[in-house]
Write a structure and sequence with these properties.
The protein is α/β, with parallel strands linked by helices. The protein is built from eight helices and twelve strands. The longest helix has 13 residues. It starts with a strand and ends with a helix. The structure holds zinc ion (ZN).
Length: about 240
């Protein structure tokens, strides 16, 4: 059994399609939130996930799109994009987003958008990772939110380790350690690698592998230009930040 764990798709249909072309037909597809916001195809991305995703949790942009939640904390470009998204979201998409849970707990792992309990907190350093580990007893926590492919590890003494997975790669879980795995972003990578990211989790083999893959960035950018999205959001796809 394998899980294909995708996060921060952000309305980027071309990248989602490429990701699902890599995923095996019997892989269990998981979405860690922020299906919408920034990108030009929110309804199309949701329609695909409604069919293909077995498990999905809520992201901050998803909540902002349906309830305007937290928009006052968004920067100008993000606010413009969420306003555009609110204008185009259809009823089926809104209904699907409305029913997403903040977290999904399984015996061996936890799914949240940003961090356990404080669901939209960014884990950006060892202190934040240490606090996040203390708020859960899950052996493995899968997150997105930062758009950075990386992981945090906590050993039995509480020491925190960290590694970026900017070029993809694999992690084998060790006995007695706990992990926070950030799968990176399908729709808007921010770790200076414009290739999109997701992760494959194989519970029986106790391993995770990050995949970085190309998608037609220029096609997405052309759609964003046609939708009059802020140029900052359009250009960042090319540089991955
Ligand atoms: Zn996001």
């Amino acid at each position: 059994m394998r899980y294909a764990i995708l996060s921060d798709i952000h309305g980027n249909l071309e990248s989602l399609q490429r990701a699902l072309a890599i995923v095996a037909p019997d892989d269990i597809v998981v979405s860690l939130g922020d299906v919408v916001g920034y990108g030009p195809n929110p309804n199309e991305c949701i329609a695909i996930l409604r069919e293909r995703a077995r498990h999905a949790v809520l992201g901050n942009h998803d909540l902002a799109a349906v309830e305007n939640f937290g928009v006052e904390n968004f920067n100008r470009a993000a606010r413009a994009a969420i306003g555009w998204t609110q204008g185009v979201l259809d009823q089926a998409s809104r209904s699907w987003l409305n029913l997403l849970p903040y977290e999904l707990r399984f015996p061996d792992f936890l799914l949240v958008h940003g961090a356990p309990v404080s669901y939209f907190e960014y884990i950006l350093d060892k202190d934040a990772a240490a606090r996040a580990f203390e708020r859960t007893d899950a052996p493995i926590v899968f997150v997105g939110h930062t758009h950075i492919a990386e992981y945090w590890v906590r050993d039995a003494e509480g020491a925190i380790g960290h590694r970026h997975m900017q070029q993809g790669g694999e992690l084998e879980f060790e006995e007695g350690k706990r992990y926070i795995v950030d799968v990176g972003s399908v729709g808007q990578p921010r770790d200076l690698n414009p290739r999109a990211s997701f992760a494959i989790y194989e519970p029986e083999r106790r391993r995770v592998e990050w995949t970085r893959y190309e998608y037609p960035i220029d096609e997405v950018q052309a759609k964003m230009r046609a939708a009059h999205m802020p140029s900052y959001l359009i250009e960042r796809l090319r540089v991955g930040r």
